[in-house]
Design a protein that fits this description.
The structure is a single chain. The protein is α/β, with parallel strands linked by helices. The chain has 2 domains: about 230 residues, Phosphoenolpyruvate-binding domains (TIM Barrel, Alpha-Beta Barrel); about 35 residues, no CATH class. It has an 8-stranded parallel beta barrel, surrounded by 7 helices. Helix 6 links the parallel strand 4 and strand 5. The chain is elongated. It binds 3-methyl-2-oxobutanoic acid. The site of 3-methyl-2-oxobutanoic acid has 12 residues, from strand 6.
């Protein structure tokens, strides 16, 4: 498929049983590489607050941060569908504020859809945004923007009341017009029930193999963010180690005068240089 992937294509993948891979991207180069590799869905996640900006949660991320990073990702994504996170408090205060922030991610950032956290309580907001022609991805289970209310990064939906509520939330998002739902840190079996219940795709992170797709934070899967490794992440590369060893080699070669060599240097006609130095006034 040479053209840009649409939410219709994403939904069709579920119908045909084709699993949906999604990764986060926060900059042009990563988006370009993931896009070239064939990733159909790129998420400009507010996880950028932690892995790019160095905060200890997603709470400080602003809509300006999201617009800025979304622009870069969209420039790198020739084919992938780009979904951008509405950050903390950019959609909870009122539906009007939610609409105008969702519009900013599309108009200024160039995103193709937006993602927000929450279920039944946020369903009418989802309905309003979708009604304006902006596709919405939901996010249930561990919702990092509510980290203080959830008292930490724990699995969600293990007890009956939470599991029942999550199924209700998922149905409410589908009814409100969401085109997909992220399930984060949810027991595999519950994620399987939700995936069967919904006609829209579920994209899991720490939610097992029964989801219709899988998302990974790119810094985790590339081994770039080494301070913390969530249980649900798998390292497909060790770029953090590669970076450290590259920096060390650079330090050594600079100190030992091994870099740069002629190959990395610019030549000049020695005659021209001789005439320049010969004509220099003495100091
Ligand atoms: O912000 C993010 O990276 C996310 C994923 C964990 C799904 O929301």
């Amino acid at each position: 498929m040479g053209r840009q992937i649409t939410v219709r294509d994403i939904r069709a993948m579920k119908q045909s049983g084709e699993k949906i891979p999604m990764v986060t991207a926060y900059d042009y180069t990563t988006a370009y590489q993931a896009d070239q590799a064939g990733i159909p869905l790129l998420l400009v996640g507010d996880s950028l607050g932690m892995v790019v900006l160095g905060y200890d949660s997603t709470i400080p991320v602003t809509i300006e941060d999201m617009v800025h990073h979304t622009k870069a990702v969209v420039r790198g994504a020739k084919r992938a569908h780009v979904v951008s996170d509405l950050p903390f408090m950019s959609y909870q205060v009122s539906e009007e504020i939610a609409l105008s922030n969702a519009a900013r991610l599309l108009q200024e950032g160039g995103a193709h859809s937006v993602k927000l956290e929450g279920g039944e309580r946020i369903a009418s907001t989802v309905d309003r945004i979708v009604g304006c022609g902006i596709p919405v991805m939901g996010h249930l289970g561990l919702t990092p923007q509510s980290i203080h209310g959830l008292s930490g990064y724990h699995a969600q939906g293990r007890v009956a009341q939470e599991a029942t509520q999550m199924i209700r939330d998922a149905r409410a998002l589908e009814d409100a017009g969401a085109y997909a739902v992220v399930l984060e840190l949810v027991p595999d079996s519950l994620a399987g029930v939700i995936s069967r219940e919904l006609s829209i795709p579920t994209i899991g992170i720490g939610a097992g193999a029964l989801c219709d797709g899988q998302v990974q934070v790119v810094h985790d899967m590339l081994g770039l963010y080494t301070q913390f490794m969530p249980k649900h992440a798998k390292r497909f590369a060790h770029l953090g180690d590669d970076m450290t060893s590259a920096f060390r080699s650079f330090i050594d070669e600079v100190k030992e005068g091994l870099f740069p060599t002629e190959k990395e240097s610019v030549e000049m006609d020695p005659e021209v240089l001789r005439s320049v130095t010969a004509s220099l006034p003495s100091r």
